[in-house]
Fold this protein.
Amino acid sequence: MTGSDVLRLDAVGKEYPGPPVTRALSEVTFSVRTGEYVGVVGPSGSGKSTLLNLVGALDRPSEGRIVIDGHDTSTVSDRQLSAVRCRSIGFVFQSFNLVDGLDAVDNVALGLLYAGESTASRRRRAMTALERVGLSHRSDHRPSRLSGGERQRVAIARALVSDPALLLADEPTGNLDTQNGDAVLELFDELHREGATIVLITHDPQVAGRLPRTVAIRDGHVCSDVTAAPTAAEVSA
């Protein structure tokens, strides 16, 4: 069941100075409620990367308003924006972004680096997150000893360890073969069933087609926002 808005964009636009001035987004409006699983889909150059930066609190819009977990990113200070990014958003990247010299549990614990917790507490929570993604048995393995699918699971655990309001995944299957990609998407399905709020950015229509809701971006505009009909299992749940 979904609740209040975790993410809301109201008439958001983004320009980059020139010359010439580049208009990346215009009048983008949509919201994501607690517990929703939404795909943002579009071809290369559609504005997805700009939208990712804005939704991830890495940048601010040129106009309009973005509210993330109750915080208006247009009005907060840079320090507050950084806090929103650290506390409210868990990032999953296409390229995993793991530290080669650290084992899996310490890579996950990095997600709590600024939480003010002891090393022991961070490692305990990291182990719990690895258990959640089915990888606790690989906790002492460095990235070089993990498969691509396992590395992405570690990255997902790192994103989950701080219990963020929003899980933001950027092309999470882009560096994986079909089998590992499907396994990662099944993990996202499971996390969604457990109540996680997920926004997944993708250019792949097959990935987008399996998601409960898709927001399509083209030429910097939202061109469709489609929610799939619930399955029989969801209706009976």
Remarks:
- The chain has a mean pLDDT of 92.
- The CA atoms of residues 57 and 85 lie 6 Å apart.
